[in-house]
Structures are given as structure tokens and as C-alpha cells.
């Protein structure tokens, strides 16, 4: 039997979910809580296989309760069941340690299947939540324009910021003037700026030069 702790501050929601889950041959609701603080105590006492956690509750919300449960019991498997898809709810809940994230609009059998899947080591995310996470990961891994510059291009950008002309840069680096011009052209293209002045502004804005 998959033992489940059901946490929701709406009694009618708990009654409905508990009734359906208890009718399943492989799931047992062993305890219920209407608040995050109570959920922590029950979770640590009963060590259920799965915790169904609501997010918005009066005394302590589901995010804080999830954090505290995971601190005391890192192996806990928590499924967030909520109506919220906004970023300020999704990310903190997952970062707190929630294993899965589904909506209250899910059908009863979908909640039961999420319990089974999470119990078996899978992470279940609403499609929109999964999309948000992928987008956030792409944003985190996306390079800033100046990170695409080669060492030589960065060196030349710093000399441009010092006010040096192409010829002065060529003389200082002992390279051909034509080579400097090619590097400057590449720098402007990579930084997506129109001229040397904008390149210098970019350098200062991103603290590449003092």
C-alpha cells in the first residue's frame, strides 16, 4: 500500500480526494492536515510514502512546510497539488524540494496515477510547469554577448575602452592594422552594437572595465 498524507485547508477537497484514493486497491490515506505546521508534525511522525501538499494555507503555506519537511526528512516525496501556475509559486515549491507539481483541476485518476508514478521514482509536472522550467533553464544557460568574445577580442575591447585607435592597438599588440579591423568588426557583431562608442558603453555597463 502506498501511504499518503493529505494536506489541504479545504475540508471538502480533503473529503473528496480521500474518498477516491481510499477506494484504490494500492493507496491508503493514513492522515490529513489542514495546515503546514500540522503537516510537518504528521509527516515526521508517520513517514508516509507520499505527501499531497496544498500551497496556500492560513498558518503556514505549502512551500514553507515543504522546506521544513525536506530539511528534517530529505527522502520525503512531496506532490504539490494547487490551483497556481504563476512563477512565484512554481519555482519556490520545486526549489523547496517538491518532487511533483499537479493542478487541482486534474481528474481524480490523474492524481492517483501521479501518486503511483512519484512513488516509483518519477517526477510528474504539469505540461505548463515543465515548459516554464525548460524556459528558465535556457535563460540560465544563455551566454551574455561578451562571453562569446575570444581572449584577443576581449583584449582589443579593453584597449578600445581606453580610447586607443586601431593603429595604436595594432602597434601595442604587434599585429597588422587589417587584423585589428577584423577583430573590431567581430566585436561589434558579437556585442550587437553599431560602433566603437556603443561597444565602450557595453563594456562599462557590464563592468568589464573600471
From TrEMBL:
| SUPFAM superfamilies listed in its UniProt record | C-terminal effector domain of the bipartite response regulators (SSF46894), CheY-like (SSF52172)
Give the matching InterPro entries: CheY-like_superfamily, NreC/VraR/RcsB-like_REC, Sig_transdc_resp-reg_C-effctor, Sig_transdc_resp-reg_receiver, Tscrpt_reg_LuxR_C, WalR-like
Please list the residues that carry the modification 4-aspartylphosphate. 54
Provide this UniProt record's keywords sorted from A to Z.
DNA-binding, Phosphoprotein, Transcription, Transcription regulation
Q: Which superkingdom is the protein from?
A: Bacteria
Domain named HTH luxR-type is located at 142-207
Q: Name one GO cellular component term.
A: cytoplasm
**Which BP terms does GO give this entry?**
phosphorelay signal transduction system; regulation of DNA-templated transcription
UniProt-recorded Gene Ontology molecular function terms: DNA binding
- Give residue ranges for domain Response regulatory: 3-119
- The answer on whether this UniProt entry bears the keyword Membrane reads no
Q: What protein am I looking at?
A: DNA-binding response regulator
Amino acid at each position: 500500500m502506498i501511504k499518503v498524507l493529505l494536506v489541504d485547508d479545504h475540508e471538502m477537497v480533503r473529503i473528496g480526494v480521500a474518498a477516491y484514493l481510499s477506494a484504490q486497491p494500492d493507496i491508503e490515506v493514513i492522515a490529513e492536515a489542514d495546515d503546514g505546521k500540522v503537516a510537518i508534525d504528521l509527516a515526521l511522525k508517520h513517514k508516509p510514502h507520499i505527501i499531497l501538499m496544498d500551497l496556500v494555507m492560513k498558518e503556514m503555506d505549502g512551500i514553507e512546510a515543504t522546506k521544513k519537511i525536506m530539511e528534517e526528512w530529505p527522502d520525503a516525496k512531496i506532490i504539490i497539488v494547487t490551483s497556481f501556475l504563476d512563477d512565484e509559486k512554481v519555482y519556490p515549491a520545486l526549489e523547496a524540494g517538491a518532487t511533483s507539481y499537479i493542478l487541482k483541476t486534474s481528474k481524480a485518476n490523474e492524481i492517483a496515477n501521479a501518486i503511483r508514478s512519484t512513488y516509483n521514482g518519477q517526477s510528474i509536472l504539469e505540461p505548463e510547469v515543465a515548459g516554464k522550467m525548460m524556459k528558465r533553464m535556457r535563460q540560465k544557460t544563455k551566454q551574455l554577448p561578451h562571453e562569446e568574445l575570444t581572449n584577443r577580442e576581449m583584449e582589443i575591447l579593453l584597449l578600445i575602452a581606453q580610447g586607443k585607435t586601431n593603429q595604436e592597438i595594432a602597434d601595442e599588440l604587434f599585429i597588422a592594422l587589417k587584423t585589428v579591423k577584423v577583430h573590431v568588426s567581430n566585436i561589434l557583431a558579437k556585442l550587437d552594437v553599431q560602433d566603437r562608442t556603443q561597444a565602450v558603453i557595453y563594456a562599462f555597463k557590464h563592468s568589464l572595465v573600471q
